[in-house]
Task: inverse folding
């Protein structure tokens, strides 16, 4: 940010007010940073954690986003990954690049693309979403996806934070995916696909920049998706103990 | 008599030389040690705060400002009446001062009192670029004191201004560590019952507003004259002396409630202008305001100057003592403030039932009306605890200052009735209200304003956007005033934050309902859920800044350019033709 | 109405009490706690003119001899109501509370006095007239006299006890030669 500001400040040097031959007092026009839309950025790892499942599966997981832009338009990069430590393979690897504009007091609309490049077949999706703050302080993020195979699905994320104190915070998350059509190749059946529910107790150690946490995560697959997983020798329900940190800078 | 005559003669011959004071300021990178942390910042003449600039009314000052930074800078002389191109706002008064450059300000000093100066570039001011101005009057002061001290407050934060702004944009509650917790829920349940507490939380959750949203930025160390609470700035006195304390709030974001346990403070000046003296136990100083008080410690003991932040997230502390090293007890911080639904009263489209139709800031109580018509009998034995049911709209024509209520009723008409920010003196005594401020010697004739301009103070905490009439500075057209008119500004605060509104270059005549005795200020607090009026005699040509003085609100867009069209002579009248705003870039 | 009358009457009583104290003793706070007594104009050795401004006196210091009677001509040249009251600092402090009540009851209103309120008969012969011999209360432009005998040396000031004025420095020292 400071470099942005000084860049604009430099542009100010170039600007000279209107030369007003008539008057002694010159009226200049404001071309300073203040008169420009405020550009800002941020990087946040909502989750950066190690997961250990009830069947001794070990995962490294992150869920992060970075943005750059103004109040009126932001570019946002969202990234989620689940890395299976023993098999040295990505169970999940999603990267999204979206543009984001405000549509109401508390909500933004997003549009962009999502690239899934885990172990196995890749997918590219078009993304249309809404994210914001719902009444009673629920952070919600709802997205509609259309894959390059023509399959459509939807995902809803919700998060609620309970302040035990102003530093000990219990965060509850729920993530549900619904497919409107089957994508057998990547193991997705029609209907409710999966849910992931998490409960993490964190402590804000350094401002809100570094907050270590412990927690539990429950993952469940449903319907045809569960059947596909079973057929493939995978599990349909997992419990994880997690340890990690929320990071923002 | 003779020397004066000679001086007069000389000043006629060489006006610039005789009465011109020459001053030098350098703008430097400095280290700021608060006792809690050491932080790189910006200062003047190698220190933050900068020096106390002492001017004399009637002199013309030349101030050479050398920029030793590697970025642009500027100095704004807060509260001084001067030609607009000396006002020091980049993009409005002048282009700014380039790195390595020396800029010479030159302007006549036409006033006296306590003021301050600060950078108007980026976040240099929160980073430490501020100092005090003391102007000695031409004649005598209308009060007496044996010694004086500048008491300049700030809210020094371990983060740089740029970083604070970015964090607020990313997470508006980034710094707020007084939010409501589970523990507070249960204590509220035991106090108000489960259903009431749930209903309360649901009502606030529905608005997505936080009761705890009193101060955007916590985590600062309050400094007085650059010293943290542990470093304990100390002013010395001899028992029995009258001491003039010149309080200046140079904070980026923090309002302070100031008291000196054991001492009455007699407020004699507000924003550099003398007011009719009023003795108080405590007062709240908004960001950018100044208050001069006279205290008279009679005993051979130390007294603590205690400045609690309005939201109680931090404090500044200093000491008055007969000898260096003496200390008095430092009070505990009081409970954090919580907003109430009354503070939300300004939000459009909100149904607050009984609050509808209330015009808190209306306050149009006429001037010092004759009280003879009042039936005092009905006031005796009045139960002040029931004052909430009083209909303020029927109070037209009443002079609040001269009523018993002023003292016994703790409710300040400049706050929404039932406001969570309603100030209370720690010792139960008198807390200064704007309603107590009356000009000592009115500068302007009272006259009807030529027109009214409504400025709604607007914003969205969750996006950390701040604006006027819903429009941020980047998208806004300038406010155009005509030289010679008297404009009545109506501030309607539709946010839940307090905004100290600062108009550059011209006085803000605060309407406290005292007619010709209304005080003149440079910064006007507008509390949440209230409407406040001020009037301005448009007597300075040029273009000026007009903004909320909370650094991060101003930067987020609660800012306007004001263009004064016309001027005292005909050549000036042409300026309006060329006055253009560089909005479209 | 009754409560009000009682209250104001009480106030008037307390004011007379102060006047009495002013004329006689005031409790012996340290040495020189007496401020003197009302004087006779015929005995006045000289006249001192004291001008009132907002909010200070000119002069701010006078010298008297013990036992001297002085005729003060007090002129209010300011824009606000001011008082000229002779007494010890403790007496002024006590009197300030009464003056605060006068402001709260609208008797003193910035630049003017409400004479109706002042003269209101409280039903027992008392009023808020402010007619103690050691002090005068003046509207802008008014001029009044106080004749005072400085019986003994003491810590005596002349002061304006309109709320805030004394604290802001509207007082003058009486020095004994």
Result:
């Amino acid at each position: 940010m400071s470099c942005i500001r000084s860049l604009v400040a430099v542009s100010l040097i170039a600007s000279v007010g209107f030369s007003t031959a008539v008057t002694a007092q010159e009226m200049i026009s404001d071309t300073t940073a203040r008169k420009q839309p405020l550009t800002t950025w941020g990087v946040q790892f909502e989750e950066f954690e190690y997961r250990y499942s009830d069947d001794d599966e070990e995962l490294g997981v992150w869920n992060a986003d970075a943005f750059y832009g103004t109040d009126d338009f932001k570019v946002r990069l969202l990234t989620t990954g689940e890395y299976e430590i023993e098999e040295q393979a990505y169970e999940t690897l999603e990267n999204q690049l979206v543009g984001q504009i405000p549509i109401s007091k508390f909500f933004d609309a997003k549009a962009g693309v999502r690239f899934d490049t885990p172990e196995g077949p890749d997918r590219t999706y078009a993304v249309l979403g809404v994210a914001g703050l719902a009444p009673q302080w629920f952070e919600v993020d709802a997205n509609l996806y259309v894959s390059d195979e023509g399959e459509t699905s939807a995902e809803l994320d919700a998060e609620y934070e309970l302040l035990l104190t102003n530093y000990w915070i219990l965060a509850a998350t729920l993530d549900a995916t619904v497919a409107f059509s089957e994508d057998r190749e990547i193991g997705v059946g029609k209907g409710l696909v999966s849910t992931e529910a998490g409960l993490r107790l964190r402590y804000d150690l350094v401002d809100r920049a570094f907050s270590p946490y412990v927690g539990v995560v429950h993952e469940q697959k449903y319907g045809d998706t569960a059947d596909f997983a079973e057929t493939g020798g995978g599990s349909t329900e997992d419990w994880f103990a997690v340890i990690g940190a929320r990071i923002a800078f | 008599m003779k020397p004066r005559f000679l001086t007069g003669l000389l000043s006629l011959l060489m006006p610039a030389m005789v009465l011109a004071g020459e001053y030098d300021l350098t703008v430097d990178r400095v280290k700021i040690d608060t006792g809690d942390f050491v932080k790189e910042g910006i200062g003047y003449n190698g220190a933050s705060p900068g020096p106390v600039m002492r001017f004399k009314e009637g002199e013309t000052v030349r101030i050479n400002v050398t920029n030793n930074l590697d970025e642009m800078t500027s100095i704004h002389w807060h509260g001084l009446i001067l030609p607009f191109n000396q006002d020091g706002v980049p993009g409005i008064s002048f282009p700014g001062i380039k790195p390595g450059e020396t800029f010479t300000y030159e302007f006549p000093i036409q006033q006296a009192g306590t003021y301050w100066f600060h950078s108007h570039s980026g976040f240099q001011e929160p980073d430490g670029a501020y100092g005090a101005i003391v102007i000695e009057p031409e004649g005598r002061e209308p009060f007496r004191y044996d010694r004086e001290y500048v008491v300049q407050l700030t809210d020094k934060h371990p983060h740089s201004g740029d970083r604070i702004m970015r964090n607020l944009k990313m997470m508006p509650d980034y710094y707020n560590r007084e939010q409501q917790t589970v523990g507070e829920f249960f204590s509220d349940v035991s106090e108000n019952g489960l259903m009431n507490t749930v209903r309360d939380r649901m009502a606030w959750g529905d608005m997505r507003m936080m009761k705890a949203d009193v101060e955007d930025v916590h985590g600062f160390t309050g400094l007085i004259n650059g010293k943290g609470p542990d470093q304990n700035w100390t002013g010395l006195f001899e028992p029995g002396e009258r001491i003039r304390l010149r309080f200046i709030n140079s904070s980026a974001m923090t309002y302070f409630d100031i008291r000196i346990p054991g001492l009455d403070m007699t407020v004699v000046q507000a924003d550099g202008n003398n007011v009719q003296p009023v003795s108080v136990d405590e007062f709240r100083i908004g960001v950018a305001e100044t208050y001069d008080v006279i205290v008279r410690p009679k005993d051979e003991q130390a007294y603590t100057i205690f400045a609690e932040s309005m939201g109680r997230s931090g404090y500044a502390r200093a000491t008055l003592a007969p000898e260096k090293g003496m200390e008095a007890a430092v009070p505990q911080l009081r409970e954090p403030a919580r907003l109430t639904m009354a503070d939300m009263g300004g939000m459009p489209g909100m149904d607050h039932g009984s609050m509808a139709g209330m015009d808190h800031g209306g306050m149009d109580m006429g001037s010092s009306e004759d009280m003879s018509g009042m039936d005092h009998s009905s006031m005796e034995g009045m139960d002040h605890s029931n004052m909430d049911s009083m209909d303020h709209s029927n109070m037209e024509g009443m002079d609040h200052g001269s009523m018993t209520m002023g003292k016994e009723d703790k409710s300040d008409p400049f706050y929404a009735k039932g406001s969570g920010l309603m100030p209370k003196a720690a010792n139960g005594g008198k807390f200064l209200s704007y309603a107590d401020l009356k000009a000592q010697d009115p500068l302007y004739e009272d006259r009807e304003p030529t027109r009214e301009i409504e400025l709604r103070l607007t914003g969205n905490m969750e996006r950390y956007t701040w604006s006027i009439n819903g429009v941020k500075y980047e998208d806004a057209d300038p406010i155009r005033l005509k030289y010679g008119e008297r404009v009545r500004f109506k501030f309607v605060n539709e946010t839940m934050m307090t905004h100290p509104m600062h108009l550059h270059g011209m006085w803000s005549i605060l309407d406290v309902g005292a007619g010709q005795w209304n005080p003149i200020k440079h910064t006007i607090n507008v509390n949440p859920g209230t409407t406040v009026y001020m009037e301005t005699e448009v007597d300075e040509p040029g273009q000026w800044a007009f903004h909320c003085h909370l650094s991060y609100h101003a930067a987020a867009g609660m800012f306007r350019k004001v263009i004064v069209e016309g001027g005292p002579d005909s050549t000036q009248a042409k300026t309006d033709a060329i006055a253009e705003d560089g909005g479209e870039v | 109405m009754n409560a009000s009358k009682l209250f104001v009457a009480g106030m008037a009583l307390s004011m007379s009490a102060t006047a009495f104290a002013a004329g006689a003793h005031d409790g012996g706070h340290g040495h020189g706690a007496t401020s003197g007594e009302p004087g006779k104009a015929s005995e006045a050795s000289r006249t001192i003119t004291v001008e009132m401004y907002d909010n200070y006196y000119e002069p701010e210091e006078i010298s008297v001899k013990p036992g001297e009677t002085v005729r003060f001509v007090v002129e209010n040249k300011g824009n606000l109501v001011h008082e000229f009251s002779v007494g010890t600092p403790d007496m002024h402090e006590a009197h300030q509370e009464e003056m605060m009540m006068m402001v709260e009851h609208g008797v003193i209103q910035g630049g003017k006095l409400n004479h109706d309120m002042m003269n209101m008969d409280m039903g027992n012969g008392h009023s808020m007239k402010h007619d103690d011999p050691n002090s005068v209360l003046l509207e802008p432009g008014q001029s009044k006299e106080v004749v005072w005998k400085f019986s003994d040396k003491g810590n005596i000031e002349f002061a304006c006890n309109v709320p805030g004025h004394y604290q802001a420095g509207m007082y003058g020292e009486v020095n004994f030669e």
Observations:
- The CA atoms of residues 301 and 339 of chain B lie 38 Å apart.
- The first strand of chain B starts at residue 20 and ends at 33.
- Residues 358-369+399-420+433-585 of chain B form a domain with the Immunoglobulin-like fold (CATH 2.60.40.420).
